[in-house]
## 1
Amino acid sequence: MMNQLKVLAGRLRPQATQLLAKLNVSLLGQRSMSSRSPEAFLSSTNSSYVEEMYFAWLENPQNVHKSWDAFFRSVSMGAAPDHAQQGFPSTTHKAAIQDGPGLAKSNAMTEKLVADHLAVKSLIRAYQIRGHHVAQLDPLGILDADLDSFVPSDLITTIDKLAFYNLHESDLDKVFRLPTTTFIGGTESTLSLREIIKRLENTYCQHIGLEFMFINDVEQCQWIRRKFETPGVMKFTNEEKRTLLARLVRSTRFEDFLARKWSSEKRFGLEGCEVMIPALKTIIDKSSEMGIENVILGMPHRGRLNVLANVIRKELEQIFCQFDSKLEAADEGSGDVKYHLGMYHERINRVTNRNIALSLVANPSHLEAVDPVVQGKTKAEQFYRGDTEGKKVMSILVHGDAAFAGQGVVYETFHLSDLPSYTTNGTIHVVVNNQIGFTTDPRMARSSPYPTDVARVVNAPIFHVNADDPEAVMHVCNVAAEWRNTYNKDVVVDLVGYRRRGHNEVDEPMFTQPLMYKQIHKQTTVLKKYADKLISEGTVTLQEFEEEVAKYDRICEEAYTRSKDEKILHIKHWLDSPWPGFFNVDGQPKSMTCPSTGIPEDMLVHIGNVASSVPLEDFKIHGGLSRILRSRMKLVKSRMVDWALAEYMTFGSLLKEGIHVRLSGQDVERGTFSHRHHVLHDQDVDRRTCVPMNHLWPDQAPYTVCNSSLSEYGVLGFELGFAMASPNALVCWEAQFGDFYNTAQCIIDQFISCGQAKWVRHNGIVLLLPHGMEGMGPEHSSARPERFLQMSNDDSDAYPEFGDDFEVGQLYDCNWIVVNCSTPANFFHVLRRQILLPFRKPLIIFTPKSLLRHPEARSSFDEMVSGTSFRRVIPEAGSAFQAPEDVKRLIFCTGKVYYDLIKERKNQDLEKQVAITRVEQIFPFPFDLIKQEIEKYPTAELIWCQEEHKNMGYYDYISPRFLTVSRSRPIWYVGRDPAAAAATGNKNTHLVTLKKFLDTAFNLEAFEGKTF
C-alpha cells in the first residue's frame, strides 16, 4: 500500500508543481529577482537565500532569472540535480555549475526545499480529501460512520504521517509557506509544520467530516475550505448558545412528554438525534436572513411530530389530541396516522423578524417517495412567484440513512436537480443517520462507505457531523444554507447520531443490536451534555437551565389539558397545500356544476393556424416536419382535427384563459410517436428552438413542455407536487408507453389514488398513458387499466339515484377519473373539463397509439365548438339507432377496439342488427347513460367487447355494474382469453386472436342457450 501511494504521489507531482507555480507569495512581492543569475547561487551556500529564491519563483517565475525558472521547474518535477542543471541557458553557466565549489550541497538543499514544500502541500490535500475518514463522527464511539476502521496511512499518526511524506520530526518546527488552497493560516502566510498539522486535525478530524474535494469547481472548493479552515470561524455568541440550548430543551422535552403520556403508543420519536430540531431551525433562520420566504419540507415519520411542534409550530393541543383513540373525523376522507400528516403555517421568524411560510408535505410510510413531490411543489411555487433563481422559495428534505442509500427514487430525484425544467435551485438534504435501518446493520444495508454517497453524482458537498456536538451541527447548517444561497446547488448534512429506542417505541432493539444498545442505554443525552458545557463555561446558570425546562414542560401540560376538548379531527387543519379562494366565491361554496367545455370556432381556427406554422422568421425546420404542418393546415381548413391537433386546441384555449399548462415526461416535446412536435428545432442553428404554443396570444399564460430524465417514479412524483401548488394549472405527465408507469406505481398507490381520502388533498394531475394491443409484444401494449379500476372507490352493487347533478356529483365523490377516449374531440373536452370543474381530481387517460394517425379517428369542429361537452358515453348513431327494436346485439366497448368493431360490422353487413356503444368514461361508471342505452334496445343481447385479455382490462370492473343497472339482463364477455402476459409477442398470434374475438362479437348465435 505504501509503495502504491508513493507511485500515486509521483504521478500527481507535476500537477502539484503547476499549482505551486501559481501561488501568490507575498514575501518578495516588492522586489524583482530577474537580474539574479545562477552565479549568485553557485557562490552561495546560504539556505535562507535558496529559500528566498524559491519563494520568489513560486510567486512568479519571471521574478527570477530564467535559468532559475528552468532549474526549479525541473527539480519540482522530480529531475535529478544534474539533469536540472541542463535547464541553464548557456554553456558558461553550465560549466560554472559543474565546477562550482558549493554545488553538491546547494543542489541537495534546493531539492530538499522543493520536496518538503510539495510534501506539506500533499499533506494538506490528504486531510482535505480523506480527513473525514478519521473524524470523530459517532457519538457512541463504537461504530465507524464510513463502515471502515482503516485509517489512511498518510493520516494515521504524526510519525507515520511524516515518514509517508519523507519528512522528519526535526521538520515539525520548520516554517512552511502555505499554499493558496488552504485557509488554515488565517492572516498568516507561513506556519510551522507542527501548527499546520494541529490546525488540519482540528478542521478535518474532530466532529465534522467534510467530503467536497470531488467537486470539479475550484472556486466552490475554495469557498468550502474558507468556511471550515479559517481559524476561529466556528464561534458563537452567548446569545446564540442560549438560543441553541432552548431549542434543544424543546426538542428533548417534547419527546419526554410524549413518552410520559403515551408510553405504549408509536410516536417515531427523535430521541438520539434531538439536535435535528435546532438544525432545521438554523437552516431556516439563515435562509430567511438571506431572503427566503417559503420553505417546503419533506421527511419520513421519525421526528415528524417534533418537527410539526417545534419547527412548523403546529398547535400542541392539535398534535396531542391525535393520540385520542376515540377521535372522530369531522372532514371527508379516511384520514391518516398522525406521523404522516402535513401542515402549512405562515408566521414571523423570531430570529430575523421576517415573514416565512413553512409547509411540511404529508406523505405515506413509503420511504423517500415524498422527495420528488416536494421538489415539484417547490418548483411550482418558484414558477408562480417568478422566482427563477430560488431566492424566495426553497426545499429541505430530511432522510433516514438506510433509506437514503437504499431507495432508488433518491437517485432519480438528485438527477432532476440541475435540469432546466425541474431544478429547484438547490435543496438542503438533512440525513438523520441512526447508523441502523430498522434492525439491519449498515454493513448489510449498503455497499458505499457512507449512506450519503449517492449525492456525489451531482457534486453536492457532504458535511458529516457528530449529532452530539450541537455547535458543530449549527455551524454546518449555517454553511449549508449559505452554500445553497450562493451556488443554487444541493448540499447534504449528515447528522450522525443514534436511535435511543427501537424502530418505534414498542420495538425491542436488543434482539438484534445488543452491544449497540448497551452503549445507548449508558449514553448521556445531548441536552445534558450541552447544558453542562454551557453551565461550566458560565454562559447559563443551572437555575436558568432548569427554569427553561420547567417553562416548556408547563407549555406541554397546558396544551395537553386543552387537547381534552378536541374530540373531532379536522383534517383541513393539517393541509400542506391550501388553495385559498378556490373552493369559494365571495365567501360561498362554488356551485357543483360544470359549464360547456366547447370554445368558439374562431379560436379553434386561430390555434390551428399557429399549430400549423413557424412563428419565428429565418427559422429552418426539418422537411418532414414541414409536411406534418401542411397536413395540419389541411385539417384546419376542412374543420377537422386529429389527436395531436385536438391536444393543441385544448392547451391553447386554456392558455388564453390564463391557465398554465405543463406537459412533462420522456420525449414529450416531439412525442414518442412523432405526432406532437410542440418544440421546433432550427436545422441550421444549434440549440435554437421555437415553441409555437407560446406565440398564440399576447397576454396568454405560459406553456411549459419539457422532456424529462429517463425516470418515471421521480418525474411523476415531481409533477404531482407541481400540481399541488395551484389549482389553476393543467399539469400532465405522459408515459413513454402506458406500462412505463409500473415503476411509478408507488406514487399512484400512495399519493394519487388516495391522497384526498388521507389528506383532503385535491389534485388535478393528468396521466397520459399510451395503450392498445397493436401486435407489438407484451411490453408497451397495456397501461394496465384493471389496476386503476381496482383502486376506484365506487360500489358496484349500489344502485344510484339519478338527478340533474348526477354527473358532477359522481365526479366529486370519486377518488379519480378514468377515461379511454375514442375521438380527438372527446379528448379535447375531458382535458378542458379537468379545469372547468369546481374541484380537482386526478385524471387517468388511456391514450392511443395507432389512433394518432387512424383516418377514422378524426373529429369535426362541430363537436368542439361552444355548447359542446365531454361525452361520457357515445351511443350508436347509425342504422341500428334508427330501428332499435330490430337490434339483436348491443356491443359496449371502450377505446381503440371500436374501430376494429365497426370495420368488421361493415364487412359482415350487420349495421342494422348490431349496435355499438362506446363507454368513454369508465370511472366513475356512467350508470345513468348505460341504463338509457340498455333500455333503448330492449330485446338486444348485451356484450362487452375488449381487446385486452379477460383477466385484464375492464371486464371485471364493468360486469357487476352492468348487472346492477340491467337487473336481469346479463352482459357477455368477448375478447381475448385470460393470460399471464399483457399481450402476445407474436404478430401472427395477435392477428389470429383479434379475428377470433371479432368473429365471436358478430356471431349472433354465439351465446344462445348459454346461462350466465
Note: The domain at 601-771+820-863 is CATH 3.40.50.12470 (Rossmann fold).
## 2
Amino acid sequence: MKLEELSTIEKAAMLSGASEWDSRGNARADIPSFVMSDGPHGVRRQLGSGDHLGLGASKPATCFPTAGTVANSWDPQLAEQMGQALGKEAHDLDVNVLLGPGMNIKRNPLCGRNFEYYSEDPQVAGRMAAGLIKGIQSNGIAACPKHFAVNSQELRRQASNSVIDERTMREIYLTAFEIAVREAHPWSIMTSYNQINGVYAHENRHLLQEILRDEWGFDGMVVSDWGGSNSAVDAVKAGGSLEMPSPGFTSTRELVGAVEAGTLAEADLNARAAEVALVAKRTKTQGVGRDDLLAESVIAEHHEVARTVAEHSSVLLKNQQGVLPLTAGTRVAVVGDMAQTARFQGSGSSKVNATREENLLDELKAIDGVEVAGFAQGYERHGAANKQLQQEAVALAANDSVDVIVAVVGLDERSESEGLDRSTMAIADAQNELVEALCATGKPVVAVLVTGSPVELPWFDHVAGLLYIGLSGQAGASAAARVLTGVVNPSGHLAETWGMQYADCPSADWYPAIGRDAIYREGPFVGYRYYETAGVPVRFPFGYGLSYATFSYSDLHVDEQGAHITVTNTSDIDGATVVQMYISGPSQGVLRPVRELKGFAKVELAAHDSTTVDIAFDRYTFRHFDVASNAWHTESGWWTIALGTDAHTMVASQEYAVAGDVEPQAPNKALGAYLHGDIKNVTDTQMAVLFGHEVLAPGKPEVFGSNDPILSWVDSRGFVARTVAKTLIKRERKIREKTGQPDLNTLFILNMPPRAMSKMTQGMVDAAMVEGIVAIANKHTFRGLGKVIAGFFRNQSANKRTAKELNHE
C-alpha cells in the first residue's frame, strides 16, 4: 500500500512519536519505526523507556570531544572522521537518527550549552558541522543538526522569544545552518524550543518553508526538540514533520479534526508524512539489535579517534621562554583535582556513558622522560575554600625535586549544563588563589584549562604556559599529556573570542533575558565582529593559537577564484597552522563589522617546508541580506581581502574590485552607535532603526498563559502556584549544592510552560487539562483542579478510541 492510500488518522499518527525515542511506523505501507538518540559527541543509547535529559542509564559509547572543543581544530575533515565513528556506533547500537551536531551561534559566553556548539562565527560552525554530518550519514544514519534556530540561552528555554532583526538573523544565526544544509544535505533537522519574533520555531513557516526548504533545498524531516512542539496543526502547516517525544494521541486527533474541518490541507499532512517516511527509508538498513554492545575492536579504534581529535583541538595560549614542551628529565608537580578525576564532557542530554576514562596524572606518569615528582589535589572540586589543600600543593611545588608545576584548573560539572546558564565568567576563587600561590613559588607554572567556554584569567600574566584542552572527551587526558611533552605539536585555534572580563561582552548588559523576550539588540556585532569593530581589548582574539613551530606568510595574490598565499614553516619541527581569510566591504557600503571571516584552511607543514594555500570565494563571501528587497545582494566596489592568524592579526591584505549586482549604499546615519559597533551605547531609537520597528521589553505578566514557564509562577497571586515554583527553585538549588551536579529534571520543569505538559506525558495530559493547570496559576485553584480531573477521564477515553481506530478494531 502506498503512503497516500493510508487513512487520514494513520498519516496523522506518523507525525508524532510512539515513545520517548521511537517514531510511529505503519506496517500497511511498509514504513518501519526508527530510533532517535542524542549524539552530538557520543551516542547516548538509552536503556528502557528512558528520559531525554541524560539521567537514565545508557549503553557504553565513545565520548568524543564536545563541539566547542572540536571547533578549535578548524578541520572539517577531522570532524568528518569523528562523524564516521559516531555513525558507526549509532549503527551498531541500533540508532537510526543521531541528534546532532549542535550548531547554534555562541552569542554570549555564559550560555550553559555553549560546550555543545561550535563557534561564534557561522563559517566555522557551518563547515565543521558539515564535516560531522557527512561522516555520520556515510553509515546510513541520519544526522540531525540543531537547534534551528536563534537559540542562545537556557533560562526560560521553552518559553523564550528571540527578538532579532531579519538581516542579523540571516547573516549570523542562519548562515551556519545554510552551509551545513547545502554542503552536507542532512536527512533531518531539529527545531529549537524558542519563538523567533513571536512564532515558535517548530511552526515558523518563514523559517521552515520559505528559507529551509524553498531557498536552501532541504528535503528531509523537521523534528521538534523534545517537548518543543506548540500546536501540531500549525507545525504541519509550516513545515514541521515530527513531534517528539510521544504526546499520546492528542496531536493525532487535532490533525484529523483540522483536516475534517478544512483548516488543514490534506496535502500538507501528506507532505509531512512523506518526510517522516523518507527518513525511515533512508535508514532502513538498521536492525542490529537493541541489546547489542559495541565490539571491543570498535571501542579501541574509536578511543584512538577520540584522542586524535582531542590532540588536534588543543590550543596553546601561552608558552613563555619555551616552557613547553616538557623536555626529557623534567621533574613535574601535578596539581589539581581535575588532574586525578578528569572532567571531559558537559552535563545534560549529551552526557555519554564513556567506554573508557583517563586522567592526566596517570598519563603523565606513563610517558617516558618525564618524572612526576608528586601530586596534590590543590582545591575542592566544587569551589569550597580549603586552605590546607592549597598549602599542600604549594609545599609540593616549592620542593627542590620539582622543576615545573602543571596545574589543572577550570569549571566543574555544575557550571556548564543544559537547562542552566552560567552565572559568572570566573572560575572558582579557590582555584584562582591556588594558581597565584603556585606562581609565587618562583617555579614555572603551566596551567591546563578544562572548560567548555571562555573564562576570566586574572593570573594569566604570572603563569609560564597555558594549554586549553576544553572538554576533550574520554581520551583527552592522554592527548593533553602528549601535547605537553611534545609528542604532538598543538595546532588548535580558538573558535570564539575570550574577553578580558565578562562586562566587556557585547550582550553582557541584557543576557540572559529574564522575561519573555530575549532582544538581540547587539545586532550583527557578535563576538569578534564587536571587539574588532569597537576596538575593545581581549584576552585572546577569535582564531588565536600558538604552536611549537613558527610560520611565515608571503606572496598574497587575489583573483576571481579567491585568495592565494605562501605559507612556510620556519622552524625545525613539523607543525600545522590555520590560515584565515577576512573581508571588509566598500568604505561607503552597508553597515558591517570591520572584518568578517569568509574562509579558512588548516595546513600541515614539515620543518622548513612551504606550500601555497588557496581559499576560495563562494556564495557567502561578499553577500549581504537586504531586508527591503528580501534578497541577497553583493555591492560593487573595492573590497579588502586580508589573511590573518586570528581576527586581530592580519599578515597580508590586498584590495580587490568586486562586480556586484548593486552599488554601495551608505548606512542610515540614524543607526547612531551601531555605525561604530558601540553596542553598549545603542539607544532604543537606534535599535528601532536596525529592527525596522519599535522594540519594547514587556513587563511581568498579570495573567499567566499556557506558554509562561513554571518558574514565572513565583509572581503568581495564587498560593498553590507560587508555592510550587518556590519549592522547585529551592529543591534544585539544594540538590546542586549537595551533589555538585545540576538537577536537570527540576530545571526542565522550571523552564517548562504548562502547554509542554501535553507534549511530555505520553498522552496523560491534553490541552483541556492544560487550561485547568493555567487556571491554578491564575489563582483559580478549585476551578482549575476540576478541569484537570474532568479532562483526565475524557482524555483517557479518547485515547482508547483513537488506539482502536488505528489498530482497525
Note: Residues 249 and 803 are 8 Å apart (CA to CA).
## 3
Amino acid sequence: MLLPACATWAAAWMAVGAPDVGIAGWMPAAVLWVLALAVAGALGWPLLDRRGRARAGGDPPPAGPRDGSSPRRRARITAVAATLLVVLACAALTATSAAAGLVERSRSPLAAAAEARSTVDVVIEATTAPRPMRAAVWAADEPMVRVDGVVVSVDGLPASGVPVTVGVSASTDVEWGARLAFSARAQALPAGEATAFRLVSPDRVAPVAGPPPWLAWASELRRGFAGAAAALDGDGGALVPGLAIGDTSAVGAELDAAMKASSLTHLTAVSGANCAIVTAAAFGLAAACGLGRRTRVVVALVALGGFVVLVTPQASVIRAAAMAVVILIGVATSRRAGGASALSVAVVLLLSHDPWLARDYGFALSAAATAGLLLLAAPLARRLSDVMPTPLAIVLAVPVAAQLACQPVLILLDPAISVYGVAANLLAAPAAPVGTVVGMLGCLVLPLLPSVGFALMQVAWVPATWIALVAHGAAGLPGGRLPWLPDAPGALVLVAATAVGLWLLLDPRGGRGLRRGAAGLLVLLVAVPIGVVAGPAAVARAAHPGEWDVADCDVGQGDAVIVRSEGAIALFDTGPDPAALERCLEFLGIERIDLLVLTHWDADHVAGSDAVVGMVQTVVHGPLDDERSSRVLDPLVTGGAEPVEVTAGRRGVLGDSRWSVLWPPPHTAPGNDASVVLELEGRLGSAIFLGDLGEQAQARLLASASLGPVDLVKVAHHGSADQSERLYETLSPTVGVIGVGADNGYGHPTGRLLGLLDRLGTATVRSDRSGTSLLSATGDGAFRLWTERGIGDVAPRP
C-alpha cells in the first residue's frame, strides 16, 4: 500500500493547484480513470477468455514454454498489474475529489462577492478552536484571533460549506462547532490553499449558535484545563496543556522559538502516541471488564472519537485517528493490520476525502514521522546495536528515524537542519510520556475531583519543566542551525543524501569501489549545499549583526523601513525601486512580511511593491486613490495579501509589539497629509513613523493624539523643511531615521530639520550617507547602530 499512498499524495498535490475549474480541470481525473479501466480490462480479459472457451467446450491454451510464460511469471505480471490498478484508482479518486472541490469553490456566492469586492452577510461554522495571529489589525483595544470554518449561508441563503478563515476579536465567544454571523468582504485565495476564501474586515461578529452538545462538553473541559494550568509556574505550566491535549495557547514566543530550534515542537502536537495511549487504555479497560473482542473495539473507537473532539481535529490528529481506526477494524475482523499498511490506507482515505491535506505541513510531518518510525527505526536499531548496547541503540534509533523522515519537509518550512535536535529529543524522551499521560488524566479528572486533577497536573508540571529546560538549553548552544538549500531543490537534495547515507549504513553488501563512490557522493550532497548557503550567509553575518530591531533600507530617494519583533516582520513603505528593495531584503534574509504599511500612494513610497508580491500577509493603507492605489494593491492582493484601510484609532499586533494608528482621521483626502502615521511599542521601545506628513498636518496630529517622548522617529517627508518644531519637541526622539537619496535635487534633508534634531539631541541615521542601517535596542532607551560605513552606539538624550 505504500505505492498507492505515494501516488495518491502526488495526485492530490497536483490536482488541488489546478488553475482551470472547467472541463480541463477534470482532465487529470478522467485520464487516470481511463488508465485504471484499461489495466482492469487487461487483468480481466484472460479470465473472461478462459471462461468463454470453457462454455464453448474448448480447452484453454496450455501454459508453459509455448506461450513464453510460466505460472510464476504470470503471477508476477498479474501482481504488478494489480498494484498498478490500485495505484491508478487511488490517484483517480483523489483527483476527482479535488476537481469537485474546486468546482464547488468556484460556484460559491463568495466567489462572485470576491470578484465584485462587495460586502456580504455570512454565517460560518467554526471548524477549529481560535488561534493567535502573528500580525493582525483590529478596531478596538484588544487582540485578534484566527478562526477557520465553513460557510453556512451567504446573504441569508444556504451555501455550500466551502472552507473560510476570518480574524475576530479575542473576546468573541467562539469554539469548535459554534456559528458566527457578520458582514465582511471575501478575498479568494489560491487554489492550492486549504482555505478557499479569507473574510476580511468583519463587522459586528455575533455568535448565533453554540457548539452542539456532542462538542460543547469538550469546550468546557479545555477551558477549565487551561484555566487550571495557568496557576502553574513558569514554562512548565505553559507546556502541560500542550503535552496533554495539544493546547499551545499559553506557550510564549520565547519558549515557542526554543522548542522549534531544538526540534521539540512535536511533543506539544497531538499525534499517534496520544491516540495510541487512549485507544490502548480503553481497549485494556474493556478487556479487564470481560467484554468481547468486537465490543472492546467499539469501546476503543468511542474513546478515540471523544479524544479527537477534546483535542480538536488538527491535521496530525486526524492522521493518527484514521490510522488507529484502520488498526482497530483489523482487530475486529481478525485481520492483521501492519503499521505501514495502516498508515498507507489512512493516507489514501484522508486524501481522497480532503485532497488539500496533501499541502498541509502538519499532516506531512505527522505522516513522515510515522513512516520513519515504522520503516527505519528497527533497521537502525539493529545496525546501531553492533556498536552499542541494544537498549541504547533502540532509544537512539527512534528520534534519528523520525528526524531523518521529517527533515526534508522541515527544509520547506525553514532551510536549516537542527544540529542538536536528536540530542534534545533523547533528553526529553523519558519525560514526554509521563507529562502526556499524567496531564491527560488530570484533564479528565479535574471536573470531577478538582483537587486530585490539579495534583496530577502538578505532577505533569515536573516533566514539562524538564522539557522546557532542555529546549532552552539546546536553543542556546552555538551553531544550532546548519543552513541548507531552500524550497524543493533543498528538500530533494536532502532526500538523496539521506537515501545514500542509509544505504551505506544499513546495507553492508556491495563492492568496495561502489561503497567508496557512494561515500564520495554523500560528501558532495552534504558539502555542496552547505557551502553554497553557508558561505554567503557567513559573509552576510560578518557584514552585519544577526540581531537587529529596525532596518533602514537604502532605496534611494524614498522610504523602506523594516521592523522585526519576535520573528514577525513589518515593512513601512517599499521605496521607488523594486530592485533596490529586493537587494535589501535578500541582504537581511527576509522572505516573509507579516505587515506591510503603505503610508500613501506616492511613487517614492510604493513603486517598489513589486518586490514583495507573494510575501505579504496583511497590507495596511490609508484612503484609496483610484488607479494609483489599484496599481499597487491589486498585485499584492492577488499574491495573497489582505488589504486593510485604516484611520486613526485602529490597533494591531506585530509579534510581541503593539501598534496603533494615530493618523489620518476619517474622510481625509488622499495625499501626503493623509499619510498613515503609526506608533509602535515593544522591545525597541517606542517608535513613530510619520510618512510624508507636512507641518500643518503634524500640528493637527499633535492636537488630536496623546503624544510623549519616543525612542525612534521615522522623520517625515525625507527631512524636508515642512516640519512642526512643536511635534518633534514633544517626541524628543533618541534616533531620527531619514530615508533620502544622495544628490536628490530637493535639498533633503534640509538644514532646518537637521538643526532642529541637533538641538533636541537626536542622532540622525541617513540612508544617503550611511547606506542600509540596522538599529538594535539595548533595553535602556539606547541603540546599537550598524551601518554599511561603520558601527556605534546611540544613547538617549540626558
Note: The radius of gyration is 30 Å.
